[in-house]
Amino acid sequence: MVQKAKILLVDDRPENLLALEAILSALDQTLVRASSGEEALKALLTDDFAVILLDVQMPGMDGFETAAHIKRRERTRDIPIIFLTAINHGPHHTFRGYAAGAVDYISKPFDPWVLRAKVSVFVDLYMKNCQLREQAALLRLQLEGGGRAGAGGDGREPVGLLAELSARLAAVEEQAEALSKQLDDESADVAAVATAAHLERKLTGLRRALDALEPGTGGPSALPTQS
Fold first, then answer.
1. Which of 94, 107, 135, 191 reaches 20 to 30 Å from 81, CA-CA?
2. Which spans in the chain are helix H?
3. For the stretch 63-87, what's the b/e string if a residue is b when 16 or more beta carbons lie within 10 angstroms of its beta carbon?
């Protein structure tokens, strides 16, 4: 069963949160509410999120300050943030949003279809990254088991395990390639394209590590680190 991604919705107005839930419910992911910057930061302490939709104008800690806290934390600094604002003070205001770490800046009222499409891109990227981490973790586990017992932890020969891992990785590579083509076709946000490129680089590193483990290649090489 594929685990759903979590999307954090941050707005001090309940009606706005309800509207966001109505727009994003079609994505069939887990939507988490936060009615303040402080509540959002608390949620980020325990859960991993694919993307954050953050209202700019909030009493107390506003969206800019909340984003600054998010970007200072190692655990959360790479989570994409989409700013939502009901006001537009011109280029300077928009620049402040991007300077705070946002990947996008959308003025209300916004097109529900556009917002859903943007969020969907980051959910897809998040899911591909999760798959990549799982494959890397499985590879490390099987290599450790093979090194101790000369076979996989479940009794299968290393060659069979490598073939299975290679097939699983190929499926992730195919999905990542399709996503990259989709981003190119839709002239997606620069941040989304950069994230997809980063994912492809990590997939390439994992593929090289797997290829180096094939019989006759001289033995295992260093596995790619997760960044």
1. 135
2. 14-24, 37-46, 63-72, 91-99, 112-149, 158-185, 190-213
3. bbebbeebeeeeebeebbbbbbbee
